[in-house]
Amino acid sequence: MNVIELQGSFGIExxxxxxxxxxxxxxxxxxxxxxxVSLNYRDLLMVKGHYNPKQPLPLIPCSDGVGEVVExxxxxQRVKVGDRVSPNFAPTWLNGPPNKEKARAxxxxxxxxxxxxxxxxxxxxxxxxPKHLSNEECATLPCxxxxxxxxxxxxxxxxxxESVLVQGTGGVSLFALQFAKIMGAxxxxxxxxxxxxxxxxxxxxxxxxxxKEQPEWGKIAKKIAGGEGVDHIIxxxxxxxxxxxxxxxxxxxxxxxxxxxxxxxxxxxxxxxLMNQIRVQGILVGHREGFEAMNRAITHHQLHPVVDRVFSxxxxxxxxxxxxxxxxxxxICVSIDS
Length: 338
Ligand SMILES: NC(=O)c1ccc[n+]([C@@H]2O[C@H](COP(=O)([O-])OP(=O)(O)OC[C@H]3O[C@@H](n4cnc5c(N)ncnc54)[C@H](OP(=O)(O)O)[C@@H]3O)[C@@H](O)[C@H]2O)c1
Description:
Layout: E1 2-6, E2 15-19, E3 29-39, H1 41-47, E4 64-72, E5 84-87, H2 100-104, E6 118-122, E7 126-128, H3 135-139, H4 141-154, E8 163-167, H5 171-182, E9 186-191, H6 194-203, E10 207-210, H7 217-224, E11 230-235, H8 242-248, E12 249-257, H9 270-275, E13 279-282, H10 288-300, E14 307-312, H11 316-325, E15 331-335
Parallel strand pairs: 8-9, 8-11, 9-10, 11-12, 12-13, 14-15
Antiparallel strand pairs: 1-2, 3-4, 3-6, 3-15, 4-5, 5-7
The structure holds NADP nicotinamide-adenine-dinucleotide phosphate (NAP).
């Protein structure tokens, strides 16, 4: 079977097609014929060797993909041949809090990922997809969508009428925007681009702030949210944005720590966290049960993920360079040619 792997070293230019032996499912396992993959910022860090410089190679990158069940091992009952499914990002994390083992065993590093024609997976890790979605749309759900869902629903309890601030217009943030809207929240979005802010407003955001034009956007967001501040912040920026988030958030509000796009080390004014009783909650994607709950909501609301571009897997390097350029709005997908 054909796969895309990083062979001797890291780097986008090292992503190469290779042949590997097609495996047969053992007891409890399933063979998937992969249809589509979506790219996450984490995949870019992994490919460049920034996520884990000690990651053993070769590695098949990417955590997110959708496939059709083509072969079942013994004792598999959760799925049948023909089902369209995705493995969970952390395949052994089924529900509740993870332990270290479940949290660290993740697809696309350290485990081989989804950029492959066929993938052998444990049936327990699989989630079936909403019927109204295309393969590419399904492929966007395992990491970006589930992270946004965990931040707003599983680890938090967003209520109608509350306010949510999402940073930027990448994968996680646009899913958070869409989920917050179906739950009746008011959404403020920040972006470096006025054109992307317009698109976010078309998608349902109530207000937009250009964080390049307004570097002190925290104060503006607080004002927009009625002076008291924002209830929930989807923090994907990290080092450079956390200070602004602490200005924007209301007393007793939530900062959902998800990403580190602007760096991992930050001088944080700790007194504003304690004086204002801010809850800072780390998020690590999510469990299979959360993925299933999210897919029920997506089906009920007939929601469609925002797919910016679909690349052929022959153009995998171009797809990663497009992700690196940050020109995208929403998700970048890759279709797996048979
Ligand atoms: N903890 C978890 O479980 C988890 C899961 C998924 C992702 N993440 C992390 O979350 C972050 C976002 O991931 P993603 O896949 O959604 O990325 P993405 O699709 O590549 O989105 C990146 C977007 O974020 C915005 N951005 C970049 N720098 C920013 C800054 N300094 N302030 C505000 N916005 C900024 C930009 O939007 P504009 O172009 O609109 O400015 C950019 O297009 C990454 O750090 C990723 O590693 C964590």
